[in-house]
Amino acid sequence: MSDKKLTHLDDQGNAHMVDVSSKDVTARTATAQGRVGMSADALSQLKDQTAKKGDVIATARLAGIMAAKKTADLIPLCHQLPLSKVALTFDTDDSGVSISATVKTTAQTGVEMEAMTAVSVAALTIYDMLKAVDRAMQITDIRLTHKDGGKSGLYTFAPDMPNPAGTD
Amino acid sequence: MSDKKLTHLDDQGNAHMVDVSSKDVTARTATAQGRVGMSADALSQLKDQTAKKGDVIATARLAGIMAAKKTADLIPLCHQLPLSKVALTFDTDDSGVSISATVKTTAQTGVEMEAMTAVSVAALTIYDMLKAVDRAMQITDIRLTHKDGGKSGLYTFAPDMPNPAGTD
Amino acid sequence: MSDKKLTHLDDQGNAHMVDVSSKDVTARTATAQGRVGMSADALSQLKDQTAKKGDVIATARLAGIMAAKKTADLIPLCHQLPLSKVALTFDTDDSGVSISATVKTTAQTGVEMEAMTAVSVAALTIYDMLKAVDRAMQITDIRLTHKDGGKSGLYTFAPDMPNPAGTD
Amino acid sequence: MSDKKLTHLDDQGNAHMVDVSSKDVTARTATAQGRVGMSADALSQLKDQTAKKGDVIATARLAGIMAAKKTADLIPLCHQLPLSKVALTFDTDDSGVSISATVKTTAQTGVEMEAMTAVSVAALTIYDMLKAVDRAMQITDIRLTHKDGGKSGLYTFAPDMPNPAGTD
Amino acid sequence: MSDKKLTHLDDQGNAHMVDVSSKDVTARTATAQGRVGMSADALSQLKDQTAKKGDVIATARLAGIMAAKKTADLIPLCHQLPLSKVALTFDTDDSGVSISATVKTTAQTGVEMEAMTAVSVAALTIYDMLKAVDRAMQITDIRLTHKDGGKSGLYTFAPDMPNPAGTD
Amino acid sequence: MSDKKLTHLDDQGNAHMVDVSSKDVTARTATAQGRVGMSADALSQLKDQTAKKGDVIATARLAGIMAAKKTADLIPLCHQLPLSKVALTFDTDDSGVSISATVKTTAQTGVEMEAMTAVSVAALTIYDMLKAVDRAMQITDIRLTHKDGGKSGLYTFAPDMPNPAGTD
Questions:
Q1: Residue F113 located in a structural domain
Q2: Model-level pTM?
């Protein structure tokens, strides 16, 4: 078993917000992705809106940006970080929509959770806005795809590696 | 294409918080599920904690409960609903942990989004607490599995139906 | 001087959240309006966006809806009310954009502040999104234009009455 | 038409929280003003309270200060900024009360929206506390009057310049 | 040992927000008290302010009222309740200030935590505003003094009963 | 009477968020303590839970951590500070549980209120979770015990000094 520690738990296994006061303040960036799978009917309405007024996507985009700023209020042990950039992209294909969120900060810890939260809340918002058409939509494949900055440096999700979770 | 309307958009396609003032106040319940897939190493640490002190799961559980209460603050067009119950369960298997959240209200609209949000934030919290061990964890299969109450009545997710999103 | 009491102050002049527990639960609605005056340049960019993608207006609309739900968190003595509808409209003319917000509830007190707050935050959002083009924009004429329900019944703003504030 | 870009929209016109990570961290200050016009009756009660206990103004002042800290939660594309000072002043004349808010930060972007938000929420709070006496009060003339720091340097609202919005 | 159950824990000892959906909607009220002990110097400045402008007390009062509305956001397993009244009183004696908060609702569960939270945050605010003068202030004796409504009916704190905590 | 100024009030006695922009950014730490006194029955259930699953303490711990991050939202004149560490400890004795919270930041002002708030909300959460067993619990002795960093340097609460508030 790994020697890596669960840094959110102290020596007695209790939760705490870890001390980052001795870490360097550096530029940090993270990108996360996710997907909402949906019926042809829901997708058609989503695309139709996209073409005409874009409100489903526009609403999900803003929900994701605003949620990124609330991350430390949602995830109990996250540090509050001043985000210097949040941007989301949405790509539709023939069975749903893929979401990507990129977040930047200059701080003592990274913004992985902000990117993951932005994607999750954008996906939930798409579900909310289309659920009258398709209640069986599913949110899948939320994962960190890129991270840079800080002591651990660059991380890139490698989809063709054997995936430990076996779901992709 | 379906005649079902996207109720979050008005006749001009603009977003609004839909008028539910003429709907009946009834008991409503919703259950959503989701899953965090992870490496054997992360799972081992999760289970170990579960056996010893349960803090990863306990933290995710509280994060999910508290997030359910914030749903209307996260999802732009959700109504604020007074929740009468929120409960989450967690089940580990050999490749990750499955999360289920059940939410109840007595109100003019349902609590699907509250259940979906509880599961999503609980999953994000598990990711946050284990990411030092496994950054490649994935959050998958977030979906509404049960809904009751209101005019539309009972809904149950049917996993052996052809899945429109093709990811499950 | 009027005998009307400032209901937010008790007999000693101290602030309190007034007791509405003996008031009837009734359907209540309120509409507020406001305006953002801007340069031709800013207006041109606003309209151009409206025509193409509508993001300035779409963002302001969502900000207004979400702010209506936060009213009791912003205005110290407001009661928390479950809103059953929030909708905003935007109309551009040759010197700016007029905003109208309509809010409904079924509760023991009214939603005037929710409508006023929705308009104010939508106006602030327009300012934020266009301030790179015109810092001299002004937000004006925020007022309650319609209110119904509750003991005091119907109220309508009468613009041709002598206006006490002299700005309209 | 101006070449100035709407920085809150990317090249495709989509909303994003703009990247400020390469901007300098400098001391920044902003002052905004606004006004609540009201009837003689409302004004008399406001002044009377001011003389005796000041609770209407004291409540509005705190609401403005607290709202400044919530700006990034209200205005979708605002960055979260650590405010180093927030102060409001209130001046009554014969037809209402004028509000001024000054906000400071040391950060990569300015605090115009924090000052504008502080004034707006203070004005809404005055409306809320006096609306039992005068529902026809109006909030007007919310504008940025002073801004300093950052690359664009000093800005001062010039009231005797031809006003593009034509309302002052 | 008591047979009374810890209702916030389910049969397996896990936290959940308990199901109140089958409880009656009734009028409920709760009063809590607390105290901030302080030096003669701090007390003198507090009283002086009270006489002149009352801002320390006025600020603490508003902080308490606003905190009551945030109770469900602070206390993880609290239900969200629409408060119909919140009022605080402050009494100074020769060694500090006593705080009392009364809260009302018409709901399926009581407002004890809202009253306790209002007192606590009012006390913290007094500490914050006077800490430049006296860092050794102490917040003590926060307790529920009165509760009515719901199935359990009237409860009154009896100070001359043997106190189980031995601190009063 | 002391010459020390109440820094939260300006020269006219009005509340403001004081200007800290000229203060040094330094490492700062603060520790606060508090206590929940309770009946033998409540204590027995608390300890039993602690031994078995720890959920009462685990819930209070997370509530305290999350509340520390909300301090500036609760205490009207507090500055928003990016916390670099939050940790709580709980110790039971024969009449209750003692709580200690330590908070760190690197900023222009200290984290006393964050530590005091963490203790207070943890104590309120313990009250909430055990109130079904003992409504007469009391929260006492909330005080700052240690503070370091900034211009005023080290402060330590000295319990055997004559206590100005006379309650300890």
A1: yes
A2: 0.93
